[in-house]
């Protein structure tokens, strides 16, 4: 039987139906690679995803400090609203990191939304809406974590694995490139990273049995520059860690679904990779399964892996190693810090991948153990069909994708910790394209859980801990005012003393936090901005709050004007 397909026409441009069809000042035209390299010298801006290439999530701004933070309050608020197919609490979340350039803020949302705002007043300057098909396969919620800005353009990925370049002044599309196969279950959620003349992005979709990859595109033309697969094919280095027969490698996962960090001295991009597929059934993929659950260092010009360190070999707990790689120096060494979902804090020499130290950062770890020399010994895992196994931490990890911060002033790392377990029961399933390929039924504990913001020095010694009754599921921000800002799932936004952990200020935002706050200033006035909108893969990290209220607001705080 012949099936004829009809052109459905173009989707309605929802961005033009808002009454917000203005323009933004042309500030993004002056954002160059050189400026992003030296972003720390522009504390009034937040030029790239982590603020700077090193991933420290640290702002030198100190107008708001330990002495006056108790006086800050809302300066303005932006309501993103909710539209599209919102089926329940886990459908979407506001997970973005705002980018700020000389008084203009660029903010992405779920379902293909992007806004340009006046960073001083919150006035909307323009909005863009990408038409995302309803049938895109998404593992863990309809989310987007941010944008990149350079040379007059704003870059954003979409849930159906497109990379878009928009005119930063008008919000009009300049070019559109597809870099993932939605029919196979690929998608995209991360914030792009601009390095030199390239826009670098990574794929999502490991829960559907796809092969992860990084891609680089030319800033101006959108031409594809390179692709780096994070699972080797037969004959390539690392392929010996996969079964020699069959196609386990071709559906092996290792998706790099979070933004990497970059060191111009080594010319390396540092990226964490995701879990293997199927997540919990290791019997169909014997071996260590490189380069899953790994930190990989990629030559940014060639798109090739120069070294790797695997944090969880042969993962059967869903412990992605996608978390940020924070770059810092200590005792003359160029180091990299990484807080892994498996509950361990890794420090590596970022020039060659040598392990410097590894220490636990959460109280309850019983899936296995990692010794100080890096030896991994599994202890509890779902290896028998139909037999439940409980382990700590659960599949969302001791720290989820949400980011830690590092303050050069205090020399401390600040980590949002999740202390919650889960039960996995292995259920072997045949692979089918675009169908979830977990290999188990999983139930995350709804009780007996806790969380904290914990501070560690470079040697892995815990210096203080601010305790919370539920896991901490949002990124933290460190500032030059010796403050750490941290949001809670229950809606509170807190300011902690960066040296002691004492709580100095709190504001109830009306919905849970699952995003990344930033600091910036306009006309000499410092602001702290945080997107607020509870949701995403709640059943994976805090099922006891599946019924909590949704939200979709950006709240911006400052001292009284």
Automatic annotation (TrEMBL):
Question: Signal peptide span per the entry?
Answer: none
Which top-level group of life is the source organism from? Bacteria
SMART domains linked to this entry = PQQ
Q: Which cofactors are named for this entry? A: pyrroloquinoline quinone
Q: Which PROSITE patterns match?
A: BACTERIAL_PQQ_2 (PS00364)
In this chain the Pyrrolo-quinoline quinone repeat domain maps to 46-356, 471-528
A Pfam entry, by short name: PQQ
Q: Which GO terms describe its molecular function?
A: calcium ion binding; oxidoreductase activity, acting on CH-OH group of donors
| Keywords assigned by UniProt, alphabetized | Metal-binding, Oxidoreductase, PQQ
The terms describing its cellular component in GO are: membrane; outer membrane-bounded periplasmic space
NCBIfam families listed in its UniProt record: PQQ_enz_alc_DH
What family does this belong to? Belongs to the bacterial PQQ dehydrogenase family.
List, alphabetically, the PANTHER family matched.
Answer: QUINOPROTEIN ALCOHOL DEHYDROGENASE (CYTOCHROME C) (PTHR32303), QUINOPROTEIN ETHANOL DEHYDROGENASE (PTHR32303:SF20)
Protein name according to UniProt: Alcohol dehydrogenase
To which species is this protein native? Amycolatopsis bartoniae
């Amino acid at each position: 039987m012949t099936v004829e397909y009809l052109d459905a026409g173009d989707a309605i441009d929802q961005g033009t139906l808002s009454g917000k069809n203005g323009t933004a000042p042309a500030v993004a035209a002056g954002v160059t690679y050189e400026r992003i390299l030296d972003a720390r010298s522009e504390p009034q801006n937040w030029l790239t995803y982590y603020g700077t290439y090193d991933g420290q999530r640290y702002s030198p701004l100190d107008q708001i400090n330990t002495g006056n933070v108790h006086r800050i309050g809302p300066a303005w608020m932006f309501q993103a609203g909710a539209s599209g197919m919102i089926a329940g609490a886990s459908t979407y979340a506001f997970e973005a990191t705002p980018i700020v350039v000389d008084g203009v803020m660029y903010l992405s949302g779920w379902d293909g939304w992007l806004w340009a705002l006046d960073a001083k007043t919150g006035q909307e300057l323009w909005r863009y809406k990408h038409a995302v098909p309803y049938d895109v396969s998404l593992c863990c919620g309809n989310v987007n974590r941010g944008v990149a800005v350079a040379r007059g353009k704003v870059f954003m990925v979409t849930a159906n694995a497109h990379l878009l370049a928009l005119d930063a002044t008008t919000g009009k599309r300049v070019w559109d490139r597809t870099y993932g196969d939605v029919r196979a279950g690929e998608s995209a959620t991360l914030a792009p990273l601009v390095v030199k003349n390239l826009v670098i992005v990574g794929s999502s979709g490991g829960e559907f049995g796809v092969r992860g990859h990084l891609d680089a595109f030319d800033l101006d033309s959108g031409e594809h520059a390179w692709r780096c697969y994070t699972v080797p094919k037969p004959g390539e280095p690392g392929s010996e860690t996969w079964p020699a027969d069959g196609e386990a490698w071709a559906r092996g996962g290792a998706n790099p679904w979070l933004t990497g960090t970059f060191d111009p001295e080594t010319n390396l991009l540092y990226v964490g990779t995701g879990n293997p597929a199927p997540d919990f059934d290791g019997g169909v993929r014997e071996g260590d399964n490189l380069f899953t659950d790994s930190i990989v260092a990629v030559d940014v010009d060639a798109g090739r892996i120069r070294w790797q360190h695997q944090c969880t070999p042969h993962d059967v707990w869903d412990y992605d190693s996608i978390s940020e790689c924070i770059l810092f120096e200590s005792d003359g060494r160029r180091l990299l810090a990484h807080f892994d979902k498996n509950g361990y804090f890794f420090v590596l020499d970022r020039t060659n991948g040598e392990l410097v130290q590894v220490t636990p950062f959460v109280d309850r770890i019983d899936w296995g153990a990692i010794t100080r020399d890096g030896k991994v010994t599994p202890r509890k895992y779902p290896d028998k069909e139909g037999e439940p196994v409980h382990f700590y931490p659960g599949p969302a990890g001791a720290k989820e994708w949400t980011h830690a911060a590092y303050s050069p002033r205090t020399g401390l790392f600040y980590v949002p910790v999740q202390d919650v377990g889960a039960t996995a029961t292995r259920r072997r399933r045949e692979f089918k394209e675009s169908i979830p390929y977990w290999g188990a039924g999983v139930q995350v504990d709804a009780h007996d859980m806790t969380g904290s913001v914990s501070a560690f020095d470079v040697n892995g010694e815990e210096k203080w801990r601010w305790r919370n009754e539920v896991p901490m599921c949002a990124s933290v921000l460190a500032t030059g005012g010796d403050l750490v800002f941290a949001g809670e799932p229950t809606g509170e936004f807190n300011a902690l003393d960066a040296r002691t952990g004492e709580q100095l200020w709190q504001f109830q935002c009306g919905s849970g936090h699952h995003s990344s706050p930033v600091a910036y200033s306009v006309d000499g006035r410092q602001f702290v901005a945080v997107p607020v909108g509870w949701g995403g893969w709640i059943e994976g990290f805090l099922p006891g709050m599946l019924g909590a209220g949704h939200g979709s607001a950006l709240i911006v705080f400052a001292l009284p004007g």
